Amino acid sequence: RADGFIYIGKNKPSLSLQPCFKAALELKPLTLPKKRVVAFCGIGFPQKFYQSVKDMNFNLVAEENFPDHYVYKEQDLVRLEKLAQSHNAVLITTRKDCIKIDPSWQKRLHVLDMSVQFQDEEGLYRFILKKIPTLMERS
């Protein structure tokens, strides 16, 4: 059950009864020491992340998928680092994944940051403010 939807991409969901708010992902500029990258992530739809890496004109030489919300172990990172070295590449991941990695490893990684830009930011803001009293009544 939802009071509204936010969708990212071109195709609006076929949910005509609920308010829908369109958003787009905006990739933050990233400069890497090499164009060759090994990308890894533990997110629900990893292909979107890998496509974003390609859209930034990096040469994606290997991908490693982990389960969503994965907690990285030392041996995972050692294996990934060796994989990147074997391809003469650098490691890149998402911000969501990086924060779950030990800080001693974080400085060896590169992070592809992105932000969400809403098409109708004011409309979404008004919608949320209008829903707050209703939510307070439910509790």
Estimate the helix proportion, in percent: 25-40%
Query: What about the largest sheet?
Result: 4 strands, parallel
Structural class assignment: alpha/beta
Question: Quick one: overall form?
Answer: elongated
Average predicted confidence as pLDDT: 90
Give the amount of beta strand, in percent.
Answer: 25-35%
DSSP strand count: 7
* Strand and helix order: EEEHEHEHHEEH
The Cα radius of gyration reads 19 Å
Distance between the termini: 16 Å
Low-confidence stretches: none
**Strands of the largest sheet, in order across it?**
4-3-5-6
Count of alpha/pi helices: 5
Describe what this molecule looks like in 3D.
The protein is 35% helix and 27% strand. Helix 1 (46-55) links the parallel strand 3 (36-41) and strand 4 (59-65). With 139 residues, the chain is of the alpha/beta class. 14% of the residues are buried. The strands form two sheets. It has a four-stranded parallel sheet with strand order 4-3-5-6. The protein contains five helices and seven strands. The protein has helices at 46-55, 74-86, 95-98, 103-106, 121-138; strands at 5-8, 20-27, 36-41, 59-65, 90-94, 110-112, 114-118. The model has no long low-confidence stretch (mean pLDDT 90).
